[in-house]
Amino acid sequence: MSWLTNVVLPKIRAVVSAKREVPDNLWTKCPACGQMLFHRELEANLNVCHACGHHMRIDAKKRMGVLFDKGEYTRIELPRPVVDPLKFRDSKRYVDRLKEAQASHGPNRDAILVAHGKIGGNDAVVAVFEFGFMAGSMGIAVGEAIVAASRLAVLQSAALVIVPSSGGARMQEGILSLMQMPRTTIAVEEVKEAGLPYFVILTDPTTGGVTASFAMLGDIQIAEPGAVIGFAGARVIEETIREKLPEGFQRAEYLLDHGMVDLVVRRHDLSETIGRLIGLLRKPVVEAAKKRA
Q1: At 287, is the pLDDT very low, low, confident or very high (cuts 50, 70, 90)?
Q2: Which pLDDT belongs to residue 14?
Q3: What Å distances lie between residue 289 and 69, 154, 194, 195, 285, CA to CA?
Q4: What is the CATH number of domain 58-292?
């Protein structure tokens, strides 16, 4: 019996009691309904909860793949602005914060990506914010990127689509950040003056100086379901006016009911919807050009 007790039984116990390592990222809890979602199924469903339809945030590269036909697009090289023009420092230096954000987002130099390709068979230039990069805040680099995207759209006679997801202006750049509000407004107006469609897809969240500039100037304003869209936060507004805000205030559906948004579209349907709208708005421009020729 010594062989059984000393050799066989310890091996059996080791097999039975062995703890299996379970990765932490296998499941994601939906912040809206609390449903546990298998991460592969969630990714396949474009980060939309299959239980309640809540739209979670997705990164800029995945967003590009969703919008462009067959996920094919060409990124453009963005201008290199002056880094840390104010030599800003709070608990740490601004340049250090930038380096940390850049390290965690691969090739992203800042909170925006710009690319061109086809949407619904139509030429389009798309600028997408990366919320994970310093909360998608708008500084000089973002302003330069939107100016570059607008000029490229005019050059290619293409539609311009901007997908903001931002906490607003970047405080570390002070007044230089606020200057991007008129710059981006002028940039998208140049696209409109060229007779080209300009669309904004408002995602969660779109707030602050981004909302107060180019983000509310689209020919057609589209929002994802449940997205928070506004200037100041709901808590700040309540404390200022000393009144309880209505249910769903600043959500996409509330803005649709009150005329601030034209469409609320599921993420799965965005590419098809944008492609169809580009075709509708481009048709009169093409026909007018043919008549002039």
Answers
A1: low
A2: 64
A3: 26, 15, 12, 11, 6
A4: 3.90.226.10
